[in-house]
Amino acid sequence: MDIKQLRALIAVADTGSVTRAASLLHIVQPAVSRQLRLLEEDVGTALFARGRYGMEVTQAGAMFVEHARRALAELDRARSELRVSEGVSGTVTVGLLPSTCDLLASNLVAEVASRYPAIRLRVLMGYTGTLQNWLEQNETDAALLYDPKPSPVLAVTPLVEERLWIVGLPEAGFVADEPVALADVAHLPMILPNAPHGIRSLVEQTCVNAGIELTVAAETNAMSVQKGLVSGGHGVTILPGIAIADDLTAGRLSAAPLADSLLSRRIVLAMPNNRRVAAAVRCVVDLLVAQIGEAVRGGAWTTAQLLQEATGGAQ
């Protein structure tokens, strides 16, 4: 088993075709087929089923592909750290929550490119459960998470706390400086994230504690769909303020903070504590934490409150 075989495995799994994989790897098709054959002989099982619609990954193959991805990611990371180059270098993978991407991703990419041109930055987006899983499997170097489940392999640093908002069409008349109690809007058709999304769990627990019964009109696993359904007149939703800042400015939606004290989310920086933190990772994380602090203090993230002085020195 060698690196060429693993790269061929992943390329075929991603493209579903030996021909397309060969093009992607810039080698001839017979070479890809040979790499797969040698790999299957080495592991002693079929990794693909050759069907009429292309190369379909078997159950064993799917498991092996995930291991191969992690192995190659670790090798790429090690190669980057060992490569002699000017300044800090390496590949850094950062995970961001959907609600924070628009605010942070572009500036982070620009800052890293300007200050650390030898760093290759990968920005992934996902909900907390997905990002935490990637962190625990060493597929991500750092991530912003919303109230993650306790994990012995993660070190977390609280960064900001943000109140949740009730969101509706402009004619709903919600006003930013007039908090609304959840009980007063519980009768409205509600569009909520699917369980076990963190916000859904928080809202449901608040309802149980207060004896409130919501009218759930629809569920979705995408924040953009939540807002789209509200815009389409299907009901109201509950989101963090940063997720609707542009919509409020453009007048597409109206919103008000929920008055219930428990309806707020805490965002933390999470990093694996079971491996050494590379210099490149530390540099990117410091930039990310500093940008969050600047966004809150500068008014770009008006709905958040800093839980520590985010100046770029996260521990």
TrEMBL record:
Q: Which Pfam families match?
A: HTH_1, LysR_substrate
Indicate the segments forming the HTH lysR-type domain, all copies: 1-58
InterPro entries given for it?
LysR_HTH_N, LysR_subst-bd, WH-like_DNA-bd_sf, WH_DNA-bd_sf
Stated name of the protein:
LysR family transcriptional regulator
Molecular function, one GO term: DNA binding
Which species is this record about?
Caballeronia pedi
Q: Provide the GO biological process annotations.
A: regulation of DNA-templated transcription initiation
Keywords, sorted A to Z: Activator, DNA-binding, Transcription, Transcription regulation
Q: Which family does it belong to?
A: Belongs to the LysR transcriptional regulatory family.
